[in-house]
């Protein structure tokens, strides 16, 4: 079996990430690869338990520091129990959000990027994706899609204000600019099939 790969999808609210994550797994399987979809926070039994703590309740339920630790703890479990074993066994793992979401969302709450990377080095032995696909839409479009989807059921993060979401998008853009080997920006506009084709194109050099 050929080598496994670890791919992540990132982006702000309402860019169609989860739909594209599913479509990407199907496209990889159509190429004869064994592909597995997972997500964060969550993806392993322990991490899903932490997800419930993180996603529910009042916006101020956790301090920013406690929240950063919970995301790092969930990720450590997910990496050790699910991601590393699958990649080592030759699978292509597609993860809906990963470390860059912590850098963007918890960074927007004042947590220092170096601290987040240090937690990741400790918890997940610094595992980085082979490629990160950052879905982008013009400002305002993602928020509108997320509001139409979630209505009054937005989770603790989606419920924050537009300055917060602008900061999230700016951090994703900064990461893409400074880590351009790993991170590719993908235009999330247009028909879903067109977006999936763009994702596959951005993986062309990794595909067997
Ligand atoms: P979503 O992926 O279903 O949109 O929900 C996940 C929410 O959790 C989203 O609002 C972003 C937030 N989040 C963080 O704040 N930090 C993280 O590390 C991750 C993975 C997600």
Approximate strand percentage: 5-15%
How many domains? The number is 1
CATH homologous superfamily label = P-loop containing nucleotide triphosphate hydrolases
Question: How many DSSP helices?
Answer: 8
Spans of at least 5 consecutive residues whose pLDDT stays below 50 are none
Could you walk me through the main structural features you see in this protein, from its secondary elements to its overall organization?
With 208 residues, the chain is α/β, with parallel strands linked by helices. It has a single domain (5-202), classed as P-loop containing nucleotide triphosphate hydrolases (Rossmann fold, 3-Layer(aba) Sandwich), CATH 3.40.50.300. The protein is 51% helix and 13% strand. The longest helix is centred in the middle third of the chain and has 25 residues, at 64-88. The model has no long low-confidence stretch (mean pLDDT 95).
